[in-house]
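Bit of a strange request maybe. I'm writing a small parser for C-alpha cell strings and I need a real example to test against, not something I typed by hand. Could someone generate the C-alpha cells for this chain?
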Amino acid sequence: MRAGLKMSTSVFTVGLIGAWYFSNIGVLLLNKYLLSNYGFRFPIFLTMCHMTACALFSYIAIAWMKVVPMQTIRSRTQFLKIVALSIIFCTSVVSGNISLRFLPVSFNQAIGATTPFFTAVFAYIMTFRQEAWLVYATLVPVVTGVVIASGGEPSFHLYGFVMCVMATAARALKSVLQGILLSSEGEKLNSMNLLLYMAPIAVVVLLPATLLLEPNVLGILIASARRDVYILFLLIVNSAMAYFVNLTNFLVTKHTSALTLQVLGNAKGAVAVVVSVLLFRNPVTVTGMAGYSLTVFGVVLYSEAKRRSK
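Reply from user aminoacidic:
Good idea to test on real output. This should exercise your parser:
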C-alpha cells in the first residue's frame, strides 16, 4: 500500500515537472513563432493577452477551484506595492517579447541566464546585503559567457540585445523588490494570489500602451483572422500557456522545493535552445554555444554557492 502511494506520488511529481517544461518552453517558442516567424509584430498586445488569461484563470483557480486559499489585500499601501511590482513585471515581459522579434531563442536564453547577476547587484544596491565571496566569484563565468556568446552570435541585433537585457534586469528587480515590499507577515502573498492581483493591474497598464503604440492591432488581427483563423487559435493557446507557466511553477515548488525548480530552470534553458535550433534552424556557432555553456555552468555554480552560504 505504502509502495503504491509512493509510486503514484512520484508519477504525479514527474508529470508536474513535464507540464512545467512543456508550458515554459512552449510559451517561449510560440512567442518566437508569432512575433518573428508568423509576422504578428505586436509584443505589447501579446503581453496584454497573456495577462488577461492570467487574470481570468487565476480567478477560476482560486475563487472557484480552491487550488489555494484566497488572500486579500489588507491596505492601500500593500495595493500600491503590488501595482509597482506589476509595472516592473509588465516591463520584463514586454521587453522579453520585443527581444524575441530580433534575437534567436538560443541567444535570448543565454542573456536570460544572467538573472542571478542582476539579482545580486539589485540586492546589494537596495538592501546592502553582501553575499559570500564565492557567490560573487561564480557570477564571473555567468557574465563572461554572455560576452563570448554575443561575439559569436551571427544573428546579433543591438536593439533586441538591449531589450533582452532590460527584460532580464526587470525580472531580477521584481524578485528583489517582492522580497522587500511584501516581507512582513501581514503582506506576504503566495505566487498564485500575487498573480491574481498583478495580472488585472498589468492589463490596465498595457491597454493604453497598446492603443498608443500599436493602434491598428485589432483591425490587423481581424483581417488576419479572416484570411487565416489559425492566428486566433495560436493566440488563445499561447495566452493559456502563459498562465500555466505560473501555475506549474507554483505546483512544482510546492511538491518539490525552490532549489529543485532552480535546477530544473538551468536545464530548461538548455532544452529550449536545442528545441528552438531544431525548429527555427537559426544559425549557431561554436563560439556562441561555448559562451552559452559557460553561462549555464556559472549559473549552476552560483546556485550551489548560494545553497552552501545559507
